[in-house]
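debug: dumping io for the single-chain case to check the tokenizer round-trip. Nothing else runs in this session.
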Amino acid sequence: MSAKHILIGTIAGGGTVFLTGVALFAAPPLREFYRYAMNAGAATGVPRESPLLWAVLLGALSYGALVTLAIGNRTSPVSIGSGIRTGAVVGFLLWFTANFMFFGVSHVGSLATTTLDPLLELVPGAAAGGIVAAILGKVGGPPRASQVHHG
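debug: decoded output
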């Protein structure tokens, strides 16, 4: 996969993760659920009054890069459906890992949010995967391993 493909996929995937995350997690039901979970037990006053958007955007771009690399390094042809599936798996595993590691070493979050959050992350991950696959398909897509000639 070329640097151009990685850059395009990272920006498209990161933007999608950011926008779907805002739509999903800033909505009143989930916003209040996370606010409660982050102030439960010994972890009080954890959420920022005003999020640092530059930090959230950097995280979204990293997430987009991970989805792009997972899609771009497949040996089978990329489709929007395969992108959606790959993005969903990446999102789930990324947040399952992060949430359970944080839960194991800190008082941030609760077991409920630790368990629920990776399931909710199927949505931004799947959306980013579908967008990345669609865009990479439009810009010529990354070469597949079967298309690379050795020797």
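debug: round-trip ok. Residues 80-105 form the longest helix (26 residues).
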